[in-house]
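User: I'm writing a tutorial on reading structure tokens. Could you give me a worked example: one chain, its sequence, then its tokens, then a sentence or two explaining what the tokens reveal?
Assistant: Sure. Here is the example chain.
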Amino acid sequence: MTIIEKYFHQLTTLQAEQFAQLEALYNDWNAKINVISRKDIQNLYEHHVLHSLGIAKVVNFREDTMVMDLGTGGGFPGIPLAILFPEVQFHLVDSVGKKVKVANEVATAIGLKNVKLSHARAEEVKEQYDFVVTRAVMPMVDLIKVARKNIKKEQHNAVPNGIIALKGGELNSEIASMKNIATVWELSDYFEEEYFKTKKVVHVTIVNKK
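And here are its predicted structure tokens:
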């Protein structure tokens, strides 16, 4: 938990309490339904919570922004972002029902009012959002094909509407065809831990006509 406070100094008492509750909740649920690797659960705050919050280092969502977390798994990046941005609406979507159950139980237990969850495939979600966020669910080209329909035309934030993905490793070939619409941030510029040396946030602007 201290690693979250290290990089996010302005947490309210409620936010700090919500972040602090995540450890026991995920340890408990992960023992029943495996949503985080058994070896990695001890790194919950660094590898999952802080990693999710890397998005908040490059985009400051405005009040009433609508965000879909596509392929949320056990609730990442959606739940940490929902704690940090209580005035933003988050829709967490995953095609695996048991993972949605874990995310729902955690969100309910910490009292998140700005989250809804759906057990659904990406293709089935018809609503539109300012942003679709995701954590390495699929290659960017495929992600754009699936999520383009879900991006609103009207702009609400300083950063253009589109897809924001947490990625790792070499990305040049993956985004080679997107040079005019993609922006990449190195998370090592924001977080000093070794884990973040190869981690990135990728934003792809999506412009829809309707």
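What the tokens reveal: The chain has one domain: 2-205. The two ends are 42 Å apart (CA to CA).
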